[in-house]
Prior knowledge:
Order of helices and strands: EHEHEHHEHEHH
Bound molecules: iron/sulfur cluster
CATH architecture: 3-Layer(aba) Sandwich
Number of domains: 1
Helix content: 40-55%
CATH superfamily: HUPs
Amino acid sequence: MSSTVTKPKLVLHICCSICGAYLSELLKDRFEIIYYYYNPNIHPEEEYEKRKASVQKLAALYNSEFIEGDYAVQEWYKTISGFEGEPEGGKRCPLCFRMRLAKTAQLAVAKGATHFTTTLATSPYKNEDVIGAIGTEIAKELGLTFLTVADFGESKKDIWAKTRTLAKEHNFYHQNYCGCTFSIWKK
Ligand code: SF4
């Protein structure tokens, strides 16, 4: 008699399919993944749509649910208000991370997921400790578990190298800036 093992549900906040490609491989056997594209920071809308289409392609490859959050642009600008002039990696980014992770955690609760995490932490351009601290704090408030890079099972360096290779194989869309209008200006 065959038995089906039910995997715990994890909501994966994903901002691009590049960072999500290998992370999907690492998490797929441990969790039922729900891909959550909640990125009101991305500017312009055309770029937002390109990244979204690529993430939808990734979710389809894994036969997984894809959910799009609100493209709440005005709310995002309100969230980072006063920090527009900060460099990438400065004081604006933790506000941007928190907004997206808080919504991801809310979705996790609504979907009956026990875990959530984000592709953001795998990017070499992002501070995984800052993201880990924010995610863990939000998780505690809602009784969830947030997976940090240390929980992914491989080093950040290896994940990045493997994800780039995999993304090329899948021909995923590759952006050349973080996402917000201020990150375009700084290039
Ligand atoms: S640079 Fe990236 S992480 Fe920082 S505020 Fe802009 S979109 Fe968000």
